[in-house]
Amino acid sequence: MLDVRNPLIRFAGAALSGVLLTGCTGTGQPRSAAPSATPTYELAPRPVRPGERPVHAAPVTDGDGRFQVIGLQTGLSVLFGTHAEWPAKGQYVVVRIVVENPARANSGFDAKRQKLITADGAAYGIDRFAQATKRQPDTLPLGAGVRVEMDLWFDIPKEAKVAAVRLFGDPPLGVRGSTDGVEVPLA
């Protein structure tokens, strides 16, 4: 049996009563209404490559792929690779992208699905020869949380005006078929 005359027991009882009453009266410290900001990586800026202009487009998502267009080159008449020099049939257009898999499962990226859209509404696929000559991948496995920066090379008519790029990600795990793609304006 507890002896309520004991000063230690009386102090503990008073402290417990104070805690319970404070919790019931709502007189405690208010909680912050806004959660703290999510920390971000500090990535150093890099110079834009010669002949390229930076593109300040917001990231977009299609399926399991998150994309950000960061650079554009138009009007290139020839490309130089490690072992080849090759003229464009029209003009080469290079779109620099960051592709990311923010999902928890593996995903993939298929450069052959990506399309360059011109002002007249025509859609052009990558130029596979240019892509290979410039050592850019056709397909990439993207592990969970993987991020890759790369170029997409297109050969379009010389007089065509670039309007947008349509980017396609892999469908989420367990979903069959293909995604609809998402367009990023380039004009």
UniProtKB/TrEMBL annotation:
Region annotation Disordered: where it falls in the sequence: 27-60
Superkingdom, taxonomy of origin: Bacteria
Keywords: Signal
Domain annotation DUF4352: ranges: 87-162
PROSITE patterns, per database record: PROKAR_LIPOPROTEIN (PS51257)
Matching Pfam families: DUF4352
Composition-biased stretches (Polar residues): 27-39
Protein name as it appears in the record: DUF4352 domain-containing protein
Organism expressing this protein natively: Streptosporangium canum
Lineage, highest ranks first: Bacteria, Bacillati, Actinomycetota, Actinomycetes, Streptosporangiales
